[in-house]
Amino acid sequence: MPLRIEIPEREFFDEEKNQFINVPRTTLTMEHSLVSISKWESKWHIPYLTDKPKTKEQTIDYLRCMTITQNVDPFLFNCIPDRELLKIKDYIENPMTATTFAKEEGKGHTKKILTSEVLYYYMIAFNIPVEFEKWHLNRLLTLIKVCSEENKPKKKIGSKQLANKYASLNAARRAKLKSKG
User: Fold this and answer.
1) Residue 175 falls within a domain, yes or no?
2) Using CA atoms, how far apart are residues 114 and 118, in angstroms rounded to an integer?
3) What's the whole-model pTM score?
4) In sequence order, what E strands does the chain have?
5) What 8-state DSSP symbol labels residue 79?
6) How far apart are CA 92 and CA 136, in angstroms?
7) DSSP letters of 86-120?
8) Is 53:5 a contact under the CB 8 Å cutoff?
9) What is the pLDDT of residues 142-166, one digit of tens each?
């Protein structure tokens, strides 16, 4: 689901050129998707999906990568009002799904770094159609996690649990036999 943001008409003074610049009112359509991340990572050569803070230049460039509106003046990305930047932030953080997962206890493994290539691999491995690369990224990540959970081997019952299960079944059988006899 794409996001639409509004950049109001404004006038700026360029001190280097000593002239006024008029920015027309513009509507941008954006999507936070695997395609956007892939474009960004191909330029910056670092994973986007990390907790590492991005520079202002990297952040503005990600907004450019998210934009599906054609022929946008690059200067416009510096003119996005704060309220619209908050809308973009909320949109990026929106899970876009009702699916949730239980927290796994005792997992002390390191978190795998997700790059666009890793996500494309998961899509191929789980036979997810390539068209889904344009889904909101959080929804695509949820689908990948659902596929992963559904493909996990079933947990085996421990020997102690198995012995307890058989003991309770045998006790139930004995009780049933006693009641008949």
Assistant:
1) no
2) 6
3) 0.74
4) 3-7, 10-14, 19-23, 26-30
5) -
6) 8
7) HHHHHHHH---SS---PPPTT--PPPPPB-HHHHH
8) no
9) 999 999 999 988 877 778 887 888 8
